[in-house]
Specification:
alpha+beta, 5 helices, 10-stranded antiparallel beta sheet, 18% helix, 293 residues
Length: 293
């Protein structure tokens, strides 16, 4: 398992961030409830000049209820019990403890602990705080993020539950031009499925590509300003859709979210690229655990 909190691949066009937040589950949570959440992202692209590429990433974290309040939950997120010492050493963000209100944003509860882990991680790597915010290239391109608040961003990518999951409910993702409306689909008797499709926001895609250009420039020691990169990317014509599907159990708990982003990017000249990114997030009991009745 690669480091999932402190790094970001330069080649990624879109960050899988969503604006929806969690609502109360129909099955009342209890202290000690533990779930395994797996996020798989697959991408493929094909260019008009015949070039193509693909990638596959899989990450897993554990979610454990450590406190129940009237207005939300205290949760701890950690690496799986099978994580190696090296994996724990490279993921200073975990374990992270947060408060998750039924309405509102996640709040980090153990920031001082994460700060101490950052210092230990930097010391082990032989780095000072001066490297924070920079990019390095080893077997891949990595962003060195030393902000404890980044743990919240990582956790949000694993958050399955929107605030308004119902027929006719509104749903928004950051890279869509506008919210979509959820529709209930027919499926298995014990599973309720809700789906929504939205158009991508071309400016959001162009900005993500421009930020990638800046990062690549830093790695290649070739200065590229964000303004220059944005001007170049503004010449591209971007279109596409984002479809999101939720599957819930009979108690209303979200079991799986599948998000498919399809893009077509027409660059200057005749070159064009089609890209598909499929992200699946699944929440389940750890192997060997029985469901609570």
């Amino acid at each position: 398992m690669k480091s999932i909190g402190i790094v970001a691949a330069v080649v990624a066009l879109l960050a899988p961030a969503i604006d929806a937040r969690a609502g109360p589950s129909q099955l009342a949570p209890q202290v000690g409830d533990t779930y395994e959440i797996t996020r798989i992202q697959k991408s493929s692209q094909q260019s008009s000049d015949g070039s193509s590429g693909s990638s596959h990433d899989k990450d897993t974290i554990l979610e454990r209820v450590i406190g129940v309040r009237a207005d939300g939950l205290e949760l701890e997120y950690d690496l799986p019990t099978t994580a190696t010492a090296d994996e724990r050493g490279s993921n200073w963000q975990f374990p992270a403890r947060v408060f998750k209100p039924y309405r509102g944003s996640l709040q980090l509860l153990n920031r001082p602990e994460l700060e101490a882990r950052i210092d230990g991680w930097l010391k082990k790597a032989g780095w000072s705080r001066s490297v924070c915010g920079s990019w390095i290239f080893t077997w891949n391109a990595f962003h060195i993020n030393c902000d404890p608040q980044a743990a919240i961003e990582t956790i949000e990518a694993f958050d399955l539950r929107p605030a308004d999951l119902r027929e006719g409910g509104s749903y928004q993702v950051a890279e869509a031009s506008r919210p979509g409306t959820l529709a209930r689909k027919t499926g298995r008797p014990d599973v309720a499925t809700f789906a929504v499709e939205m158009e991508v926001d071309p400016d959001a895609v162009r900005r993500a590509r421009a930020e990638s250009d800046v990062a690549v420039g830093k790695i290649m020691r070739k200065a590229v300003t964000l303004d220059d990169a944005l001007r170049e990317r503004a010449k591209e014509a971007v279109s596409g859709t984002i479809s999101v599907t939720f599957e819930t159990d009979s108690a209303g708990n979200v079991l799986r979210r599948t998000k498919v982003t399809s893009l077509e990017i027409k660059e200057t000249g005749d070159r064009s690229t089609k890209q598909t990114v499929t992200e699946t997030v699944e929440r389940r009991l750890p192997t060997g655990r029985a469901a609570r009745r």
